[in-house]
Each structure stands twice: as structure tokens, then as C-alpha cells.
Design goal:
The chain is an alpha+beta fold. 27% of the residues lie in helices and 31% in strands. The protein has a 5-stranded mixed beta sheet, with no helix packed on it. Strands 9, 11, 12, 14 and 16 form a 5-stranded antiparallel beta sheet that branches. Helix 2 packs antiparallel against helix 3 and helix 3 packs antiparallel against helix 4. The N terminus and C terminus are likely disordered.
């Protein structure tokens, strides 16, 4: 049976863990230390050591009861990360993504940039044990080691910010996408440094107001938004809209969009712009899901094995194309028509 396929709605990109981030050093992968596993009777559950302590120079976190040792240890490290977040102003939330046995990477939401990545190092697991089928763990963070790593990150971010400022100042306005990308990256770098500076007092126990970059971050964001307005970047639908297809089959025609700066179809083509094609309703296979615009500003994708959304009354699938340069709303026009 033939069904209507709608596609190509110009929207800002959805952030992803792979691309939102910073120039932060990743925690060095080290062999897991040998920690004796303690078995406990039901009278010992939870164990006496299973509590958050505050030994001098350290932060403790607890994990469990959990079904596996790995899960209990991950919970314990996350518990420490959450304790650092307590008291941070704003509506920051964290998303866990561990990078090694003793390293820990997580994302924080920001009012300036939707998400930035932070890394913590200096973890150990001094206690781990079982009680029946459940695991318990206690993690410990060395404050000095974590502080030194974050200060090193700050120095790296400051250096990258200076490099980006120099690059932005030397770019020709014809290099639209490169200029937008560099300006957006500067915003992310400065906000990442700002978020680290907000959290350092949780490790050091003292305020260091000179580290905050809030003014610089706001200025970079305003510059970026001004660039967007001045260039009037648009994602235009070219071919492939509103195709008819048999579900579980490929679309006959390519999806094709064009990225231009100003003047609509007569605008300057923007080469090298990443455009992501993805299903908003229904599903299928997109090849390639992420494509870069060519020298004329075009990006193309094929769609295979189209399926409806799963609702018996929903006979449509909707696929969109999004400019993937930033997490901010670029004001792209809607290209979906009923």
C-alpha cells in the first residue's frame, strides 16, 4: 500500500553526547586497583563502611544495592559528582558518562549553551562487597588531584579561546560556515570554563570569583547570535519532499537540501555545513544520516525501509533535515507542508 512520506523540516540540531563538549583532557585509563571483596551476612547489610564520609582531602560517595559490581561502583562515582553539583546556582542537571575505571565524564545543562562536558579524575574504590545477590561500593575522590586536573583544563580552555579569537578575527566573511563554527565553539569553550570555575569551590573550600567567565560568555553568545542574524543562514528544501512510497521500501528519489547565507535561493552557498537527516515520526534507514554540504551548499541522503510511526491511525512518516552547526535556534524556516 502506498503512503505519504513528508520530509525536510528546517530545525536546529538536537545535541548529542558525541559532539557537545569541550577541549577537556580525558581521564587517563589506568588498571583497576585490587580491592578486596567483602561478603556480608544479612545482619551486616548494608555494611558499616557503606556511608558517605568526609575524610580530610577527599570526597566519598556510595553505590548500591546493585546487581553487579560495575553498577555499584558507577553509582558511587556518580554520587560524588552529584555532591559537587549541590549548591551550584541555576537549574544545572548532570548526565553521567564514565570514561574509565577511575575517570568520570558528565554533562551539565547551561542557560548559555544547552550542554557542556566536564571530566573528573582522582577516583578510587576503597570498599566493595556483596550481600546476597546485591553489591555495595564506596568511591573516593582525591580533592587535590581533581582540582589540579580542572585547573589544567582551565588553562587549556583559555588557550583554545585565544586561538579561536585570533581565528575569528582573521576570517573573511565569505567563509560563512567556518566563521559561525569558530564563534559557536568559542561560546562552548568559554561556558565550559565558566562551569568548571563555578564548581572549583566545591573542591577547594574557598571562593575564587576571578575565575568566572560569565561576562565573556554572554559577549561571545551575543556575537554569535549577531552573526546568525547578519548572515540569515537558511536551509532550503530542493528535492524529495512529499514523496509517495510503499512502506518497508526505499524512497525513489534522493532527499536534497541547500545551505545558503542570505537572499534565499539567490544566497551565497555555504560549503562544509553538516546537515543531519533523521526521522521525527516513523522510522527507516538514512544513508548517510550526517552529510556535509558540497561547494555549492547541497547535502543529499537516500532513505531505505520506511515504516510508519506505529500508531494504527498514523499512515505517515516524517523525516527532517537539520543544520548541525550549533545547539542554538538558527531561525530556520519550516519546510513541511501538510
Amino acid at each position: 500500500m502506498e503512503r505519504m512520506i513528508r520530509e525536510l523540516e528546517g530545525k536546529p540540531p538536537l545535541p548529542s553526547d558525541e559532539e557537545s563538549g569541550s577541549a577537556l583532557q580525558k581521564p587517563e585509563v589506568v588498571p583497576q586497583e585490587e580491592v578486596p571483596i567483602t561478603g556480608m551476612s544479612s545482619e551486616d547489610c548494608p555494611p558499616a563502611w557503606w556511608q558517605r564520609g568526609e575524610p580530610s582531602g577527599f570526597l566519598d560517595g556510595i553505590g548500591g544495592p546493585a546487581e553487579s559490581r560495575e553498577s555499584a561502583e558507577a553509582q558511587a562515582r556518580l554520587d560524588i559528582a552529584k555532591s559537587i553539583e549541590v549548591g551550584i546556582s541555576g537549574a544545572d542537571t548532570i548526565r553521567q558518562r564514565e570514561t574509565s575505571d577511575k575517570g568520570f565524564e558528565y554533562s551539565v545543562e547551561s542557560t548559555i549553551v544547552e550542554r557542556v562536558n566536564l571530566s573528573l579524575t582522582g577516583f578510587s574504590i576503597p570498599n566493595v562487597g556483596t550481600c546476597g545477590n546485591q553489591w555495595y561500593a564506596r568511591a573516593r575522590l582525591n580533592r587535590a588531584e581533581a582540582e589540579n586536573a580542572w585547573r589544567s583544563d582551565l588553562r587549556g580552555l583559555d588557550a583554545e579561546a585565544e586561538t579561536l579569537r585570533t581565528s575569528i578575527g582573521g576570517k573573511d566573511n565569505k567563509d560563512v560556515f567556518a566563521l559561525l563554527s569558530a564563534q559557536h565553539r568559542l561560546t562552548v569553550v568559554l561556558e565550559t570554563a565558566n562551569q568548571i570555575a563555578k564548581r572549583l569551590p566545591r573542591l577547594t573550600g574557598k571562593q575564587e570569583p576571578g575565575l568566572l567567565r560569565q561576562g565573556d560568555v554572554l559577549a561571545a553568545k551575543q556575537d554569535y547570535e549577531s552573526l546568525i542574524r547578519s548572515f540569515q543562514v537558511e536551509l532550503l528544501m530542493v528535492k524529495g519532499n512529499k514523496q509517495q512510497a510503499v512502506f518497508d521500501r526505499s524512497l525513489e528519489n534522493l532527499l536534497e537540501v541547500r545551505l545558503v547565507a542570505g537572499l534565499g535561493e539567490k544566497g551565497v552557498p555555504v560549503p562544509g555545513g553538516p546537515v543531519r537527516f533523521a526521522f521525527d515520526r516513523g522510522k527507516g534507514e538514512v544513508d548517510p544520516p550526517l552529510n556535509s554540504t558540497d561547494h555549492e551548499g547541497y547535502a543529499r541522503a537516500r532513505v531505505h525501509r520506511v515504516e510508519p510511526a506505529g500508531n494504527a491511525t498514523d499512515t505517515e512518516a516524517v523525516i527532517t533535515a537539520r543544520l548541525h552547526v550549533a545547539d542554538l535556534d538558527l531561525g530556520l524556516p519550516s519546510l513541511v507542508h501538510a
